[in-house]
Amino acid sequence: MSDGRTRYGSIFSGTVLILVGAVLLVHAYHPDFEFWRPYAQWWPLLLIFWGLVKLWERMSARRGGDPGPAGRVTGGEIALVVGVLLLLGIIGGADWFRTHRGNVDLNDIGFFRGTPYTFTEVVPAKTVPAKSSVSVTWGRGDINILADDTAELRVTEKKTAYASGQAEAESAAGQVHAVVVDKGNGNYEVRPNNESVRNRVETSLELHVPKLAGISTTTDSGDVRITGANGNISVVTRNGDIAVRDAGGNVLVTSSHGDVQVAGVAGDVKIAGRGGEVEVGDIQGQVAVEGEFFGPIRMNHVTKGVRFVSSKTDLTITQLSGQLKGGSGNWEISNSNGDLTLSTRKSDVSIQDAGGRLQISDDGGDVELHFSQPPRADISVESRSGDLSLSMPPQSSFQLDAQTQNGDLDCAFPGLISVGKPDGDNQGLQGQVGNRGPAIHLRTQHGDIRISKK
Questions:
Q1: How far is residue 422's CA from residue 419's CA, in Å, rounded to a whole number?
Q2: CA 23 to mean position of chain CA atoms
Q3: Residue 391: its pLDDT value, please?
Q4: Are 250 and 216 in contact (CB under 8 A)?
Q5: Distances (CA, A) of 191 to 103, 180, 181, 196
Q6: β-strands 348-352, 178-184: how paired?
Q7: Are 156 and 204 in contact (CB under 8 A)?
Q8: Between 238 and 146, whose confidence is greater?
């Protein structure tokens, strides 16, 4: 018999389905986003949310005088939570496998592989031309290449064999050798003779090459380090970190998963693909980065400028004598002597002492510009929803055109003409400060504009 009270079902199941559906929709439109990272860290939030909903339902029922089972955990909710965790876990696991499949192997687990035994094999040195071309094609294992003043190609291979005993390990390691193939016209290739037992034998290489040699490496899994080479360098790896230092030519890096470090290069640097951190410094040529690198992105002292292109950011700097740091929705740039053009989404931007023309478009982030000396080139900043902040020395001269549609406008420099509506919509300032100076154009639809004296 009804007691006259209206009973309501739990909102938990419906809310969870909406949230999970939204997450899966985002994942479907952004498949490159590594879903397993946030899932592995934040999955307990589902349990916390479940408990909060139950507490809220219990307190609401008591206030309403309902003695029913409100706030109790039902079997259906338990099944839903378990199912959701399994579903998201499968999706996260698939993402993890997609980005780490080059390293996934049951034989990597020591229990299955046996006891490790280490062996070192030295390949006989080979005399090669000073400007030879050396390529390394390797499946799995680290590669360390050092450039010397001698006209020799020397290879040392370190092998770790997993077996139940010494004799078995020696037999397995004896089947794997690094070989040097003379391909003619000064071209040499270093490659393994046998890939069939690679799951039982881990290998790493150390190469010594002539200083003027050109170098190219291709590997599925493993770190690559190249130091001191004056020829052109090309590195392609699917899983592993890459480090190139003190190079005299151009450097081309293609990464699928890993960090990239390039320092002290006389030529141009191009980094493509996807991965984690990117650190570039002391480059006499130009730096171009194309792809999805989740950062942080660090650059400093790039003589011929920077070009960075990703799905949400397009950045060009014609000369960078200072530093650049990006990633995680934030860009910080200091002492960019050349012109700077930046188009980005949902990122805060901070620029210190830009020496050239600035053109910035930011959809969903704040923009801060700071000058310790009066700006010398034109400035244009447009934002759909974000605050704009500009600080300059009191003696600065400029022609201002600033406008915000739904925000406040504050300027510490006198003598400007106020335009727009007095009720706060479409506020603007225009006019000349000082004698001549660059044109400053500031626009934001939903944000404040502040122009201050430094």
A1: 9
A2: 21
A3: 97
A4: no
A5: 19, 7, 8, 13
A6: unpaired
A7: no
A8: 146
Instruction: List, for residues 402-416, the tens digit of each pLDDT value.
Output: 999 888 999 999 989
- The domain segmentation of the chain, as residue ranges, is 12-100, 105-224, 366-454
DSSP state of 72: P
- pLDDT value at position 393? 97
Residues 6+ apart with CB under 8 A from 417: 429, 430, 431
According to DSSP, the residues that pair with 137 across neighbouring strands are 218
Q: Which residues of 234-271 are buried (b: 16+ CB within 10 A; e: fewer)?
A: bbbbbbbbbbbbebbbbbbbbbbbbbbbbbbbbbbbbb
Q: Which residues pair with 405 in a beta bridge?
A: none
pLDDT at residue 30, rounded to an integer = 61
Measured CA distances, 165 to 118, 171, 200 (Å): 12, 10, 13
Q: What does the block give as tokens for 37?
A: 């990272």
pTM: 0.74
- Spell out the long-range contacts of 360-363 with Cβ–Cβ below 8 A and sequence spacing 24 or more: 362/386
CB atoms within 10 A of CB 37: 14
DSSP state of 30: -
Please state whether beta strands 251-255 and 152-163 pair in parallel, antiparallel, or not at all (unpaired).
unpaired
Q: Which of 320, 325, 315, 280 is nearest to 304 (CA)?
A: 320
* Residue among 248, 285, 257 nearest 269 (CA): 285
Nearest to 335 by CA among 307, 354, 357: 354
Per-residue tokens: 421:
């509506």
When computed from its CA atoms, the radius of gyration of the chain, rounded to whole angstroms, is 30
Instruction: Output the six-digit token pair for 19.
Output: 């949230």
What is the distance, to the nearest Å, from the Cα of residue 60 to the centroid of all Cα atoms in its chain?
46
Q: Which residues pair with 146 in a beta bridge?
A: 208, 227
pLDDT value of position 104: 47
What is the secondary structure of 258-275 as a DSSP string?
S-EEEEEESS-EEEEEEE
pLDDT band at residue 362 under the 50/70/90 scheme? very high
Sequence-distant (6+) residues with CB within 8 A of 289 are 270, 271, 272, 278, 280, 297, 306, 307, 308, 309
Q: What is the mean pLDDT of the chain?
A: 86
Q: How far apart are CA 85 and CA 91, in angstroms?
A: 10
pLDDT digits (tens, 9 = 90+) for 201-259: 888 999 999 999 999 999 988 999 999 999 999 999 989 999 999 999 999 999 998 99
pLDDT of 152 over the 70 cut:
yes
